[in-house]
Structure formats: C-alpha cells, structure tokens
Amino acid sequence: MMESSRLPSKPEKRSEVKPEKKINAKQGRTHGLSQPLTGEESYKNDHLTHAAFVSIAILTFITFVGNFTQLQLSAALPTIVSDFGISVTTGQWLTSIFQLVMGVMVPLTAYLTRRFSTRQIVIASMAVFTLGSVFAWLGSSFVLVLIGRLLEAVGTGVMWPVLQITVFSIYPLSRRGMAMGTVGMAMSVAPAIGPTLGGVQTDLNGWRSIFLTLTVIGVISLFLAIFGLRNFGTRDASAKADFFSVGLSVFGFGGLMFGFTNIESYPFTHPMVWLAILIGLVGIVWFVLRQIHGARRQAADPSKQPPLLNLSVLKNKSFTVGTVTAALSFFAFSSIMVIMPLYIQDCRGYSATISGLVMLPGAFGQCIAQFFGGKALDRLGARPVALIGSITLLFGTIMMSLISMTSWIWWVSIWQFVRQIGMGFVLMPITTWSLNCLEPEEVSAGSAVTNTVRQIAGAIGAPVLVILMETFTALRWAAIGGAKSMYAAANVFGIQWALRVSATICFIMVVMVFFGVRGNGAGSTRDTVQRALGRMHAHTAA
C-alpha cells in the first residue's frame, strides 16, 4: 500500500518542476540583457567582449541613422515644396527642425542617463523615431510631415551623447581615443551620403520613399535594441528632472536657433528674427543662472535634486578649453557646408549633383582622419594631434579663400578634403581629451554640456557667415556699379571674405590648442604609464 501511494506523487512533482524551470530560464534571459555589464565583462585582454561589441555596434548604427536622417531631405525639399504648395522658407523647416529639437533634447541627456537604463532610453527613442517616420511617410499634409520630422529628431536627439557615455564607461583611458575615432568615422560618413541617397530615392520613387525606408530602418533598430543591446553603468530610479529648466531650455535654445535660422529668410528687424533671438537670450541667461544655483544648492546638500545641466564641469579649465575649441570647429564646419554649395551652384552654374560630388571627398577625409586621430591621441596625447589638426584646418581654409570666378572647380574639393582632414584630427581627439579630464561621475554631465554648446555653435554658424557673405556681396556690388551681370562676381567676393572670417576662427582655435591643451589627463598611453609607475613607486615606498 505504501508503494502504491507513492507512485502517483512522482509525476505530480515532475509536472510542478518543469514549468518552473522554463519560467526561470526565460526570466534569466531577460535579466541577462537588463543586467548592466561591468568593466570586466565589457573589456578583457585589451579587447571588447562579444556582448559589449554587439551593444556598441547597435548604438553606433542607431546614432548613424540619426545623423543620416538629419540631412537626407535636403535634396528632396524642392519636390516637397511643390507637392504641398508651400514656400521654400516653410519647407526648410523639415531640415531645421532637427537642429532645433536636438538643441532642446541635449540638456536632458544627463538626467535621462541618470534616471533610465541604456536599454530603456534606446528602445523608447527608436519607438518614437519609428512612429515619426510613419507619420511623415503617410502624412497627408505638411503639418503631419513636420510632426513626423519632429518625432524623428526627438528619437535620435540623445543618441550621440548616450553613445559617448557608453564608450567612456567601457574603454580604459588609454583606448578611448581609438574608440571615439572609430565611432566618429560612422558619424562623418552619414552627412556625406544622406543627401546623395535622398536625392536618388526622390528621383526614382518620390520623396515619401525616404520615410518608408526610415520606417523600416526604425523597426530594425528597435528589434536590435530589444534583442541585442545590454545596459551599461548604473542608474538612479529616484532621479528627477527640473522640468521648469526644460521649459527654459525650450525657449532659450529653441528661440535662439529659430531666430538665427530665420536670418536667412527675414531682415534682422523682423520680429521672427530679433524677437526670437531676444526670447532665446533671456531664456538661456535664466536657464544658466538656474543651473548654477541648482549646482550650488546640491553641493551644499547632496540630497537635493541635481541641476538639469551641470555647468559646474566648466570649472575644469581643460574641459572648458576642449568644449570651446570643439564649438568653434562646429561653427566653421557648418558655415562652409552652406557657403560652398552656393559658390558651386549659384556663382559657377554647376548642378546640385556636381556640388555634392565636389563636397563628398571631404567627408571621407574626415572619416579617415578621425580614426587615425583617435589612435594618435592614445599614443601621443591630445596636444600634438589637435595642434596638427587645427593648423591643417587653418591652412585648408586659407587656400579655399583664394577661389575666383575662373578657379578649377576641383580646387574646392581638394581644399575641402584638407579642411576636413584637419577637422578629423581636432574634433574627436579634443572632445575625448576634454571628457577624460573630468571625473568618471562627471562624464554624463560633461557630455551633455559639450554637445549642447556644439549644437548651438553649429546652428548659428551658417546664418552668421551667410549674413557676412551677403553684406560683403552687397558692398562689392554697389562699388562696381550694381549691374546684374556683375552680381556673381560680387557674390564670389562675399564668399571669399566669409572664408577669411572662417580662417580667423580657425586661427583662434590654433592659439587655444597651443596654449590651452596642456598637462596630465590628456588620454595618452604615456600619461597612463606614468600614473601606473607612480602608484607602483608609492606602493613600494609604503
């Protein structure tokens, strides 16, 4: 009887255990993706582990998509303007909305990376990006397409800072230059091929095919993030955002960039320009004062909520020098990318295709330079690399300013290639060095600050240089009699002087690098070895 009473209980025990094991296995897989990778799990034997490599590749691809999307519509704008029967100024908002929204999103990066995990940020971002692409693809009115572009910008606005923070959390100090140079290559290629592919798609299948492609890419990115991305770093679930500061950043950064963007379409006396700039400046001043007060309050009481944008990192002189230098390079870069197509198409009469081909080699030059610039940073330190880069950028800009109505058109391509070689040796190494100079817990705030400053510099660079170009053009045209046939020559004169102003900015960069990029913490292997030897000597003496 005892034997028979035991028999029925055996299958019951097995039936209870099996489902439990299945549930635990499933939970284990989910927990495995959500569990943050430690330093040892991310980087072993001087190489990325498989899990870390896959995650960095996914983040780089998604960030590439954001940069690619930002400029992809430039070639399709005339068709969109014609289809919706709107003005060119209105149509340009499809491209300028990216800079405006990203300028607002960047200050949120420090809070988002504190409050949410890497997976949560990326998955939410790609969901919003995909939704925006669907809106723009199927939108029956210009307003719906514009809303779609806005959502795309929201979805990609924080991806570059998140990628920066992830690279800094994974790589040791002596390898960050190489890592940032490698991911920077992808970022350099995106603006080069975006307009070209956008134009081809528009010619073959219409402009809506661009958004159909972006919808598919968004879905792919979403699945990659869900099934392949790992978390990095720690998060504070109790972190809160100062949403009043968010509002100030909207009016401040958004208003300033809105006003400067409209300078190309309205006179400065128009409210769309001066009033927007005034609101922007008031918002920025108020925002900055509020962040400074918030930082002081938290320093006195660590339990207080941190500021939205921790400007206390600017107390670090090296970080400030690197941030200002990077901002100046963005200012010069964005202005040339607008001015030179005007010279090629309006002054010389070449097609948009030729204009794209002339400017294309420069982007690949910057891509290559950023990779080797990162490697050189690890070996030599920031100062020699950035100094070579800034001098190269200065020389290329001076030579480009020698253009005339009869210059060989590929002269522009040659010196744009040289300029962007210089950019590659300045931008990524100087950014990496400046963030290396911060404490590990300050990198997130530093990344948000440097990206905000660069975004603003890039947004105002083109309008400011275009205004200077138009001013010099008008003065020259009046001096030579104002004949319509002479306007192209006057325009070349204006472009020459705009390039000379850009060269002056590059010279200021050279001076800043020469005198400002000094001391330890430059991210070089030499400094790392010296610190390691110092610790060994201290340990031996003890």
What is this entry, summarized?
It is a multi-pass membrane protein. By secondary structure, this protein is mainly α.
Explain what the structure shows.
This is Widely conserved hypothetical transport protein. Keywords: Cell membrane, Membrane, Transmembrane, Transmembrane helix, Transport. Belongs to the major facilitator superfamily. EmrB family. GO terms for molecular function: transmembrane transporter activity. One of its GO terms (cellular component) is plasma membrane. With 542 residues, the protein is mainly α. The protein has 3 domains: 41-229, Growth Hormone, Chain: A (Up-down Bundle), CATH 1.20.1250; 242-307; 313-541, MFS general substrate transporter like domains (Growth Hormone, Chain: A). The protein has 22 helices and 2 strands. The chain has helices spanning 2-6, 9-34, 39-42, 50-72, 77-84, 88-91, 93-105, 109-115, 118-138, 142-156, 159-170, 176-205, 208-228, 243-262, 271-300, 317-347, 352-380, 382-400, 409-436, 443-479, 487-516, 525-541, and strands at 43-44, 47-48. The chain has a two-stranded antiparallel ribbon with strand order 1-2. β1 (43-44) and β2 (47-48) form a beta hairpin. The longest helix has 37 residues, at 443-479. Residues 1-30 have low confidence and may be disordered.
